[in-house]
Amino acid sequence: MSFYDTLLKLESMPLGEQSGQYGRNDVERALSREKLDPEDLLALLSPAAVPYLEEMAQKAHRITRAHFGYAVQLFTPMYVADYCVNQCTYCSFSVEHDFARKKLTMEEVDREASAIAATGLRHILLLTGESRKDSPVSYVKECAGVLRRHFSSVSIEVNPLSLEEYRELAACGVDGLTMFQEVYDRETYARLHVKGPKRNFRARLDAPERGCQAGFRSVTIGALLGLSDWRREAFMTAMHARYLQDRYPGTEISIAPPRFRPYLGSFSPESDVTDRALVQIILAYRLFLPRSGLTLSTREPAALRDRLVHLGITKISAGVTTEVGGHTGGGGTPQFEISDERSVPEIREMLYRSGLQPVFKDWDILAEAPV
């Protein structure tokens, strides 16, 4: 039993057709309830909910303050390698793109980490391209050992690993996992992932659950919005998060709602996810999953991020570069274009001006883990 079995059942529902069948009574019923069921979630994601965005925002604000106070955690991604064996039509790191690939040495990892830590950040997200040959578990483990000298929390965003491999990384101090399913619609998934191990839909879908079983403190999931119908993708993502939250109450389950951003290639998103649609998604997530973290990335422009931090966001990236070694000079190829280029101090000040509390560190490992 895994979320895959739940997904198969959900696929039998006429989700696209249902979306247009919801009316104001369904939305108002969802807004009146303390704990929402899947039907409520569908109603909040439907066109009928658009006139209720202000009411949804007010309730989302109250729920967020009740569960998280005014705290917003800061972090930044750190790319250590961009070698990839997959051919994905939407990704700049796709193997079909010809550019000079990079992989940091441990000395370079340490230099990059020092530069980031000097900004005050204590939460880091380590990323690689998806290549077991060029970024094996042993390399990720070695990088994590270096990062632990600088950061209280080390999360990873790498190719799906086995349960034993996740346990190995957890034992050396990695405490968080981010795994984007990219797209939950299986036909679209098969079409967009042309070659490579990433074509294995289920291996990716089950990876967050393996992360929970391995003992990671936090697991973040999400769909890359734009690859397929956004209402269906948002619904599946939220159902996946609730599945994990119900079965692994000891793990902090979070959702990130990234929208597609280009760099290399000519991919055009299939689904137009407008700013208003993104707001509706974030609000529906918060009302359906009151205890879940919500992460907002620099894919979104600064002015929009300044507004979205009030709608349920609990974690935000700052001082971001999406190229390998980008924090110490870079020269690599970005995975995607960012929209908000503000530094860590600028994001911190924005949060203060918004009446929020920027948090640089809320986690530490009490026992020393082997490196």
TrEMBL record:
InterPro entries: Aldolase_TIM, BATS_dom, rSAM, rSAM_sf, ThiH, ThiH/NoCL/HydG-like
Name used for this protein in its record: Thiamine biosynthesis protein ThiH
One Pfam family per UniProt: Radical_SAM
Keyword list, A-Z: 4Fe-4S, Iron, Iron-sulfur, Metal-binding, S-adenosyl-L-methionine
Record carries keyword S-adenosyl-L-methionine: yes
Any one Gene Ontology BP term: thiamine biosynthetic process
Residues covered by the Radical SAM core domain: 68-291
Cofactor(s) needed: [4Fe-4S] cluster
Family matches, as SUPFAM superfamilies: Radical SAM enzymes (SSF102114)
GO MF, any single term: catalytic activity
Source organism phylogeny: Bacteria, Bacillati, Bacillota, Bacilli, Bacillales
Organism per entry: Paenibacillus stellifer
